[in-house]
């Protein structure tokens, strides 16, 4: 029920102590402001990490080799491990029911591509047709490589958007011929990639063609796979971990590498990376919550102290109220009402300013690992609940003290 007299008392008290109330409100508002901004930054970090993982397939596994670091079976350390076609073919057959996409890669870091008067160097990769999905590439023109291109050693290329812009300008490249290592290749498609220009400055051709043109024999540089989707993240992570463990064991056995040699066979499992990153993000989020709540507590303590002072100043008034028959619950309600009001108003101002700041500046923030800091509805609702609880806590102990004042003692107060 709306009590006009109660509200008049609250505003009268605020008017009498304007500076004190404003400073207390600022401490509460700054606490909410800091909490919401920190939560926004935490969400921006999650957005940035998610964007990084979107550059490739969500559960992609990459394998590459290095040099041995340990002696094993009479072989000295320092041997460079070279994977072969049979490494890919064996795993593709053995795990055919578990794999979603698969490809081996033969890479030339700098291949010279010529078209008319234009000549540029690009990363050239011989791949299987599945590589489009492993790299999360999207065709913008033409088609991607197919298995017939691979089986027939076709001289065809799929080029990135940056390659198209630099070599062909406004021309449609599909169907045109370019020279790669002084050999004519037909452009059959153009792709874009969420990784941006760095990923779009590549040229794809059939793996068999790349090995033949660049004298690669049956050598390959990378293996890449994705597994069939699972019902949830934990199952997908378990399957992925099991696969990578068995794959690493097979490759070490095939290439005579010590089981505990960590430099010869390298495997990057994006699901394991995602697990680590999101675990870290959760820890950062909890830390931000802790810092924000501690800041709010500092403000709440200020409100509580102010209410204690108010109770002290109104001791005689409270004694008169009790002498006239006021119930303790009404005294507690009076103090709590004022405490919650001051805390709520200050907190909502801090909330509004912080949300406005994130709304205006958030979309403009596009730095590495932080993208569009924002706060969702659930987080905003949580801060509102914190406000109400904080206001109640700030006023409870002063209100309890006021309710326990004996009228005879209060009336003697000067």
From TrEMBL:
Pfam families, A to Z: FtsX (PF02687), MacB_PCD (PF12704)
UniProt domain ABC3 transporter permease C-terminal: residue ranges: 291-407
Localization (cell): Cell membrane
UniProt KW keywords: Cell membrane, Membrane, Transmembrane, Transmembrane helix
Domain of life: Bacteria
NAD listed as a keyword: no
InterPro entries, per the entry: ABC3_permease_C (IPR003838), MacB_PCD (IPR025857), Macrolide_Exporter_MacB (IPR050250)
Bilayer-spanning residue ranges: 21-41, 286-311, 331-357, 377-397
UniProt topology in membrane: Multi-pass membrane protein
The MacB-like periplasmic core domain, residue ranges: 21-238
Family: Belongs to the ABC-4 integral membrane protein family.
PANTHER family, A to Z: ABC TRANSPORTER PERMEASE YTRF, MEMBRANE COMPONENT OF TRANSPORTER-RELATED
Protein name: ABC transporter permease
Organism: Salegentibacter chungangensis
């Amino acid at each position: 029920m709306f009590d006009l007299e109660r509200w008049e008392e609250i505003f009268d008290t605020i008017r009498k102590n304007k500076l004190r109330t404003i400073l207390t409100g600022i401490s509460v508002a700054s606490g909410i402001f800091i909490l919401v901004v920190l939560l926004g930054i935490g969400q921006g970090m999650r957005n940035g990490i998610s964007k990084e993982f979107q550059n490739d397939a969500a559960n992609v596994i990459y394998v590459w080799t290095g040099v041995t670091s340990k002696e094993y079976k009479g072989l000295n350390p320092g041997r460079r491990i070279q994977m072969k076609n049979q490494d890919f073919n064996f795993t593709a057959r053995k795990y055919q029911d578990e794999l979603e996409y698969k490809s081996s890669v033969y890479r030339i870091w700098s291949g010279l591509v010529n078209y008319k008067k234009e000549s540029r160097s690009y990363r050239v990769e011989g791949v299987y047709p599945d590589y489009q999905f492993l790299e999360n590439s999207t065709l913008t023109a033409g088609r991607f490589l197919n298995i017939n291109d691979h089986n027939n050693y076709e001289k065809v290329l799929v080029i990135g958007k940056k390659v198209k812009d630099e070599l062909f300008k406004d021309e449609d490249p599909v169907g045109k011929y370019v020279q790669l290592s002084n050999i004519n290749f037909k452009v059959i498609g153009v792709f874009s990639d969420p990784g941006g220009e760095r990923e779009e400055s590549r040229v794809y051709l059939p793996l068999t063609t790349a090995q033949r043109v660049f004298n690669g024999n049956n050598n390959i540089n990378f293996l890449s796979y994705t597994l069939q989707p699972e019902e949830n993240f934990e199952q997908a992570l378990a399957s992925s971990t099991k696969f990578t463990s068995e794959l690493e064991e097979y490759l070490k056995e095939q290439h005579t590498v010590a089981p505990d040699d960590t430099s010869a066979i390298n495997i990057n499992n994006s699901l394991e990376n995602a697990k680590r990153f999101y675990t870290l993000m959760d820890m950062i989020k909890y830390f931000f919550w802790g810092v924000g709540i501690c800041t709010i507590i500092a403000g709440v303590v200020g409100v509580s102290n102010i209410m204690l002072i108010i109770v002290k100043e109104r001791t005689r008034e409270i004694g008169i109220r009790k002498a006239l028959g006021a119930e303790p619950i009404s005294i507690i309600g009076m103090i709590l009402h004022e405490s919650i009001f001051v805390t709520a108003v200050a907190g909502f101002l801090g909330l509004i300013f912080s949300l406005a700041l994130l709304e205006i500046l958030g979309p403009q923030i596009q730095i590495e690992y932080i993208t569009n800091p924002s706060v969702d509805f659930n987080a905003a609702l949580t801060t509102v609940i914190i406000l109400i609880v904080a206001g109640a806590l700030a006023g409870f102990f002063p209100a309890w003290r006021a309710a326990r004042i004996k009228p005879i003692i209060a009336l003697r107060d000067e």
